[in-house]
Amino acid sequence: MLKNSLVRFHAMSRTAIRSLLMHKLRSLLTVLGLVFGVASVIIMLAVAEGASRQVQAQITSLGVRNVIVRSVRPVEEGDVMNRWDALTFGLTYDDMQRINETIDSVVTTTPQREFMHEARHGDNHLDARVVGVHMNYADSNGLDMARGRFINGMDLKHLRNVCVLGADIARKLFGHQSPLGKSVQIGNQHFFRVVGVTRWRTPSAGIGSSMSAQDYNLDVYIPLTTDRARIGEFLARVQQGSYTEQKIELSQITVQVDETENVKQTADVMEGLLAKYHPRKDYAITVPLDLLDQAQAAQRIFSVVLGSTAAISLLVGGIGIMNIMLASVSERTQEIGIRRALGARQRDIIAQFVVETSVLSAIGTMIGLAVGLAAPSVVTWSSGMETKVTIWAPVIAVMVSLAVGIVSGLYPAHRASRLDPIEALRRV
Question: Are strands 190-198 and 183-186 parallel, antiparallel or unpaired?
Fold first, then answer.
């Protein structure tokens, strides 16, 4: 019984392929809908997954066990730029001490202060973000060294005039020369000896309400103690003929929590603690763990939307197959009548047309699968956009494509099987 079924299926498959080869162009145009449909599903889901992973990697680099607190200029003092005045706002060393002493779940606190200043070496100069840091800054921010070393404890203790350069600023100031041991001028009077260069890192986009876009490759890192002693807590700024001084002790405090489960609770406690000493709300708290959850939720929605949009191409391809098979039924009416007259049953006619539809669907699906798996690499190479093909994207695309193609052929097959043999033989 099984052997007879296999023989019949093999014969039907040969007949189906022969029938499709008789109309090569028509068959090719028919499968194009499924080719583009399958490829679109895979490519769109790959783009969505790549973009999501890039955002999640940026958030993860902030540390899922971290709570980030940044100084924010008070809103009510936004119009003070035209006055000769000094603004005092933001986080202080006392805030960091209170966090360390009050909250049991806090493991470490990493302070930093940042400001824009001109960095110069010889005739080369550019605006850089100068960041006063502690020695654990590199670990908490995922910085790797390409040359030399990062700021260490002795630099902090002895207030040394040393600095670590980002990859791009080192290249722009020193070209192909090694910057180690050479001096960089910050502002008009401060000189720092270069002790290290960080490895190039992809710039991060703005994350959260208080986390702006950041390019680590244009940073200059100096010891925080040196920053406080040499540059001071007052930062002068001249803009459009006005002079403003700002006093900021710390620009950011990164707090590492002992367990991931305690991150949100610690952030709530910190909010209450800082609110007592900052009634003007001159700080903002960012929880990377919350941002990661939001990014993952957004990625799921984005994937569903893109996948659904691409799936419309599969539906269009299925309609194309149905249209062609209906035309084939009309063209082969006499053939169907002859087969019925020679003893073919209705289910034999249905099986013949379903096999032809399945062959069309399989060809279109396989070509679309090949295009879909190859295209993301081309997208990444040509645009620099990160793409990632997950195992589920091609599996879902192939299953839906085959299902759409086969289902689209059922109605034409059923219609062919219902033809009256006598009436079919009368048509020439």
Answer: antiparallel
150-182 pLDDT, tens digit per residue, is 999 999 999 999 999 999 999 999 988 899 999
Is residue 29 within 8 Å of residue 359, measured between CB atoms?
Answer: no
Pairing of strands 252-257, 66-71: antiparallel
> Given CA atoms 234, 239, 241, 242 in this order, what sign does their dihedral have?
negative
Measuring CA to CA, how many Å separate 19 from each of 5, 331, 355? 21, 12, 11
CA dihedral 340, 342, 347, 351 (to 10 degrees): -100
Single-letter code of the amino acid located at 205: A
Residue 180, exposed/middle/buried by CB under 10 A (0-12, 13-18, 19+)? middle
Question: How far is residue 207's CA from residue 115's CA, in Å, rounded to a whole number?
Answer: 19
Residues near 255 by beta carbon (within 8 Å), at least 6 away in sequence: 66, 67, 68, 69, 99, 106, 108, 109, 110, 266, 270
Q: What angle do CA 91, 93, 94 make, to 5 degrees?
A: 95
- Give yes or no for a contact between 285 and 2, defined as CB atoms under 8 angstroms apart: no
Report the alpha-carbon distance of residue 99 to residue 254 in Å, rounded.
11
Between the two ends of the chain, the Cα-to-Cα distance in Å is 37
Helix (H) or strand (E) holding 400: helix 392-417
Quote helix, strand, coil % in the chain, to nearest 5: 55, 20, 20
What is the C-alpha separation between 18 and 24, in angstroms, rounded?
Answer: 10
Sign of the Cα pseudo-torsion (314, 316, 318, 321, in order): negative
In angstroms, how far is CA 112 from the centroid of its own chain?
28
Q: Under 8 Å CB-to-CB from 122, ≥6 apart: which residues?
A: none
C-beta atoms surrounding 377 within 10 Å: 12
User: CA 246 → CA 205, 243, 312, distances in Å?
Assistant: 26, 10, 57
**pLDDT tens digits along 108-165:** 888 999 888 889 998 898 989 999 999 888 887 778 899 999 999 999 999 999 999 9
Cα–Cα nearest to 372, from 53, 55, 47: 47
* 85: nearest Cα among 208, 236, 219, 245: 245
Instruction: State how beta strands 183-186 and 219-223 pair.
Output: unpaired
* Top mean-pLDDT range of 80-84, 221-225, 418-422: 221-225
Q: Do the Cβ atoms of 368 and 38 come closer than 8 Å?
A: yes
Q: Say which DSSP state 258 is in.
A: S
Question: Residue 419, SS3?
Answer: coil
